[in-house]
Design goal:
alpha+beta
Length: 416
Amino acid sequence: MSRVSTPSRHAIVIGGGPAGLMAAEVLAAGGVQVDLYDAMPSVGRKFLLAGKGGMNITHAEDAGAFAGRYGARRAEVTPWLDGFTPQQVRDWIHGLGIDTFVGSSGRVFPLEMKAAPLLRAWLHRLREAGVRFHMRHRWLGWRDGALLFATPDGERLEQAGATVLALGGASWARLGSDGAWVPLLREKSVEVAPLVPMNCGFDADWSEHFASRHGGAPLTTVALAVEGAPGPDGTPVFRKGQFVVTASGIEGSLVYALSAPIRDAIAAQGRATVWIDLLPDHSFERVLAEVTHPRGTRSMASHLQSRLGIKGVKSGLLHECLSKDAYADPVRLAQALKALPLVLVRARPIDEAISSGGGVRFEAMEGAGGMLRALPGVFVAGEMVDWEAPTGGYLLTACFGSGRAAGSAALEWLST
């Protein structure tokens, strides 16, 4: 067991994801000695994997629409966004020597579409600012008022004037976000909401025939709505996009965008019904006209393919989700083409999710800076906190903003 004494102008950051790195940057810029600890061999592992298919940093939509992506926690997250706006995120990236561009969907990407160059430049700047990195140091809680770490050289106790916890949620545990911090904070009387999957896939319990034939098939140019989550006029609100049929259910960007209401419906009722519009560019009247158009000796499947382009996985879904009687009724078939009911029975495991909801409740914190009421001088940031958002740059922007808020609050704590 070793113990290191530390000066009062010293802060410890635990967690090397975007929120932790941003908190470290703010603290170091304020003249504080920062030591950053992470259980993994290197920092930013989830950040790098998230950027593997194209690093979506933030989104260029207007501030009101952007803030609305945070749902029930909009009011609590907005101060983070005001303190580090999407445009300021872009300016900050430009300051690292990385150019960005806005895609056709409004999403913002680094010019090279990669996370690694951005992370390398960021770490270089942090090291130049004096941030010291300690890898393979797993935080185990507190002992005798000091922070306890398991290290390759045995247990180690550390103390600092301020501590920022940025340990992530519970998705992609192999990259470091395993939720092991939850019991450590609950032992200290910090209120933590259960961690739940967000931006995740769902199981539909397909028939073996459908799963073997269509598992992995993409559904492009479709729309999705969730039963029980209607618009202002009481009708389901369809969102257009694409997703993938898996061997067990559905996943993909359109499903992730609606994962919170789907997940909550399953939690409340044991199942959730979503409605799939297989022809979002066609009105119901046109679909009905095509379905009822004389088909001669052709089968209905051939007729639908010829008149409406329904084939492959879309045709398979009709047979999977409709009774024979409904399929044989032109009006009910046309209705199903515009709103096909699909029952989802469970979310995929949280470790498969892109992100997680739940975490330290805002009510357990002092303001946007995230200082824990039960642990003065200890701040929390990022996915550890009880908020959630869809993909599209919203997750990263809030993590950056919360990290900056926690770093600023910790800096103020050290100053006073």
